[in-house]
Structures are given as structure tokens and as C-alpha cells.
């Protein structure tokens, strides 16, 4: 190949030593699909033999990337983006781990919703590194035994893990993009989480 026609990272304004975050499309849901209600199981295994908690949270953004609403353990039912369009289960614990289930009812979501971002964060500790295999699985509410997509991060090393975004494009197709971005922050102070989410969404360009 002729080198003068070969694109490089510098061709796109990305300089040496830059940190590049990328998103991988895991699943797409077109507007003609029979799937109208989905849920995300945000899961973790306990560190060792002692039970401990992570917080599964979703952040809802409009097309201009304004944060419209947060859904989490103490605010479980959406209002601003559609009454009960997004619902948080609260804690679901077993002897080996836990999960938070967040259900998204697409027909109830307002047209202004562009991105629904899912995050796990540690409430009691400064890192989720000791929690085994944090991640999510997505399901059709009517076929709870068949995972539509999943993503797990074995080496999470900060307080919060931005797992994925469920985002709507200009053709009303919903896409699940794997993010896997680590940052500080939790539900006691999520300013850094919000600051980290924004460039992830800007980079999607959908």
C-alpha cells in the first residue's frame, strides 16, 4: 500500500500518548422488533467469603447530552423520562454475589431520551478490584432464559465501572455499546462518573 494514502491516528487528530476509549456494539434492536421491554442484570460476585455490595445505576441523557435522570437503589422508578419507563429492582442477593436489575420499557420512554448508561460502583471501598467478574447481561423481558448480550470485566481497578450504554440512533435503532471505562466516584459523590460518561457518549457519534 502507498504510504501517502495510509491513514494514521494522527490523521484524525489523535496525538502520541493519548488515551483512546472505544465502544463495541454488542446488540441492536430495530424499531420493528417484537422486543419492547428489556432488562439489564448488573452483577457481581463477593470478594472472598464476606458479602459486600456494588451499586447498579443508570444515567439517562438527551440528544444534547444533558443528564435528565438517575435511577439507583433509593430512586427506583423513572419520572422525568417517562413514568416507570425505567425501574430499578433494589438488592437481589445470593450466598455468592448480588445483582441489580434495571428494566427499560421502550414504549414508555420519551422521544427525548438518547442514551441510557449503566454503571457499577463500590459503596464501601475505594475500588471494585476485589469483586469478582463484575458485568451485565441483557434480556428480553418475555424470554428471561435467553441472554441477548453480556459483558464482564475481570480486572476492574477503580471505584466505578461504566459498563455500557443503550443508545438510540437517528433511525430509532437501539444499540448496546460496550464501554468498560474505569473511574473514581460512587453514589455518594458521582461527579467524576458523570464527567467520565460525557466523552464516551460524544465519541459514539450516532
Largest sheet composition: 6 strands, antiparallel
Q: Write the H/E string, N to C.
A: EEEEEEEEEEEEH
Q: What's the helix count?
A: 1
If strands are numbered along the chain, what order do they take across the biggest sheet? 1-12-11-8-3-4
**Which percent range fits the helix content?**
under 10%
* Rg computed from alpha carbons, rounded to a whole number of angstroms: 18 Å
Number of E strands: 12
Shape: globular
Proportion of residues in extended strands:
35-45%
Low-confidence stretches: none
Q: What does this molecule look like?
A:
The protein has 206 residues and is mainly beta. It contains one helix and twelve strands; from the N terminus they run ββββββββββββα. It has one helix at 191-202, and strands at 24-29, 37-45, 54-62, 67-71, 86-88, 92-93, 97-105, 113-122, 132-140, 143-152, 160-168, 174-183. The protein has a six-stranded antiparallel β-sheet, covered by helices on one side. Strands 2, 5, 6, 7, 9 and 10 form a six-stranded antiparallel β-sheet that branches. A hairpin with a 3-residue loop joins strand 6 and strand 7. The longest helix is centred in the last third of the chain and has 12 residues, at 191-202. The mean pLDDT is 89.
Amino acid at each position: 500500500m502507498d504510504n501517502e494514502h495510509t491513514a494514521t491516528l494522527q490523521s484524525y487528530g489523535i496525538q502520541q500518548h493519548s488515551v483512546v476509549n472505544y465502544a463495541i456494539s454488542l446488540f441492536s434492536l430495530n424499531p420493528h422488533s417484537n422486543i419492547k421491554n428489556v432488562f439489564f442484570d448488573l452483577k457481581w460476585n463477593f470478594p472472598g467469603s464476606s458479602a459486600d455490595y456494588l451499586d447498579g445505576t443508570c444515567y439517562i441523557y438527551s440528544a444534547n447530552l444533558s443528564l435528565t435522570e438517575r435511577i439507583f437503589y433509593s430512586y427506583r422508578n423513572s419520572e422525568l423520562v417517562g413514568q416507570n419507563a425505567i425501574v430499578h429492582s433494589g438488592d437481589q442477593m445470593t450466598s455468592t454475589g448480588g445483582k441489580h436489575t434495571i428494566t427499560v420499557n421502550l414504549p414508555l420512554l420519551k422521544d427525548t431520551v438518547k442514551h441510557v448508561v449503566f454503571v457499577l460502583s463500590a459503596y464501601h471501598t475505594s475500588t471494585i478490584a476485589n469483586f469478582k467478574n463484575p458485568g451485565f447481561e441483557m434480556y428480553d423481558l418475555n424470554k428471561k432464559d435467553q441472554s441477548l448480550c453480556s459483558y464482564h470485566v475481570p480486572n476492574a481497578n477503580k471505584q466505578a465501572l461504566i459498563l455500557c450504554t443503550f443508545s438510540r440512533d437517528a433511525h430509532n435503532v437501539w444499540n448496546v455499546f460496550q464501554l468498560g471505562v474505569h473511574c473514581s466516584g460512587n453514589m455518594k459523590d458521582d461527579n467524576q462518573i458523570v464527567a467520565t460518561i460525557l466523552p464516551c457518549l460524544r465519541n459514539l457519534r450516532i
